[in-house]
């Protein structure tokens, strides 16, 4: 099988690693030449961490690197059996990506979106064959996080859903099917968690203190370390999307502290500064 990836940011590269580790050939591209040029080195670095921990051999690392082929344009993804987009969280951009991709692909290829908060049905709406689009929502960092939410929209074909599930389970993931409802399962449950942390911050507690308390209470990572890992921009987009979809219910309130963080460009790891980053988070998942 050949997996196509569009978008080589934090998620796209991690998803590429997941399938390449499972033995699939991966073709991947990004609109930004810098993201394409750095992808091989970023993957090599991520895999080096696993070799250092004894989780894989140097020969396995080389083989995985050999299975990632970074290509210059979307047209080069034509041989793929499953194409997953992980571009910016904007409906019009995702729709445009699939509109360009759809005519190039084999008739039985599956299209998947890694959206965290948009409607899968809305992304499928402009397609000539919407029945082959599903949501495949990976978590960050994709190689380390076991869960993938699988989201059919009302028109998804059972065969496309079954094949997306089996390819992803074969890559070692726990696949949970979700309804195409705002936030699916995890992001919906997580909103009030971030919200209370942001409310405490606005009441004057330091982000590092809140994180330290939550980590000591047994959470694998504190709320602000998690926002820094995910990206405050991505977190804000998901919160706004849920707030709109849930008619501005107070559980999904968009806190000014989060908006201000994004306006300052303090997005977390990807910008080099966040709520607690570059201080090491109290605890975090490793791959
Ligand atoms: P990112 O900002 O790290 O990467 C996005 C990449 O897409 C960039 O390299 C950008 O150059 C590229 N891109 C943008 N427009 C493009 C286009 N039209 N064609 C090709 N490439 C394009 O973002 P990240 O964090 O990887 O998120 C990507 C998607 O995954 C979003 O939909 C986000 O909601 C979702 N997601 C993010 C998670 C996170 O923790 N960051 C977790 C789960 C899902």
Automatic annotation (TrEMBL):
Every copy of the 3-hydroxyacyl-CoA dehydrogenase NAD binding domain together lies at: 2-180
Gene Ontology MF annotations: NAD+ binding; oxidoreductase activity, acting on the CH-OH group of donors, NAD or NADP as acceptor
Which GO BP annotation is one of this protein's?
A: fatty acid metabolic process
- 3-hydroxyacyl-CoA dehydrogenase C-terminal domain location is 183-276
Question: Which key words are in the record?
Answer: Oxidoreductase
**Positions in coiled-coil regions:** none
- Superkingdom of origin: Bacteria
Similarity comment: family membership: Belongs to the 3-hydroxyacyl-CoA dehydrogenase family.
Q: What is this protein called?
A: 3-hydroxybutyryl-CoA dehydrogenase
Q: Which organism is it from?
A: Tabrizicola piscis
